[in-house]
Amino acid sequence: MSIGILCAVMMSFSWEALAQNLCGQRMDIIDTLKKRYQEEPVSMGLAGNGGVVEVFASTKGSWTIIVTRPTGVACVVSAGEAWESLKGPSELDQGV
Question: Which of 9, 53, 83, 96 could form a disulfide with 63 if both were Cys (CB 3.0 to 4.6 A apart)?
C-alpha cells in the first residue's frame, strides 16, 4: 500500500476515532515498538489534517502504524504480521 493511499485512508478517520486506540507520547510508543517488537520506521507521510503517519516494521514481519497529532500525542491505529516491503516510486521500472 502506498503512503498516499494510507494517508487518504487515515484522513477518513476522525481524531476521536483514533483516540479510542492506544495513545501516548510518541517517543514512549516508539521505544516500546523497538524494545518489544524490534520494529523500526520504514515509511512516513504527512496527512492533510497535519498528522504524521508512520509505519514501523521488524525483520521478523511484525508491523505497526501510528499517527502523531500536531499536539505530539501519537496513537497506534493498526498492527499486524507478515510485513513485506515493496519497491518505492523511485525504484519502479519506468519501462522504455
Answer: 83
d(CA 20, CA 31): 21
Sheet of 40-46: strand order equals 23-25, 73-80, 63-68, 52-57, 40-46
Region of 61 on the Ramachandran plot (φ > 0 left; ψ -120 to 50 alpha; else beta): left
Give pLDDT, residue 8. Answer: 45
Give the span between the Cα atoms of 72 and 61, in whole angstroms. 27
- What was the pLDDT predicted at 30? 95
For residues 50 and 54, give the distance between their C-alpha atoms in angstroms, rounded to a whole number.
13
The structure's pTM equals: 0.70
* E strands, the chain, in order: 23-25, 40-46, 52-57, 63-68, 73-80
Contact assessment for residue 74 and residue 57, using Cβ atoms and an 8 Å cutoff: no
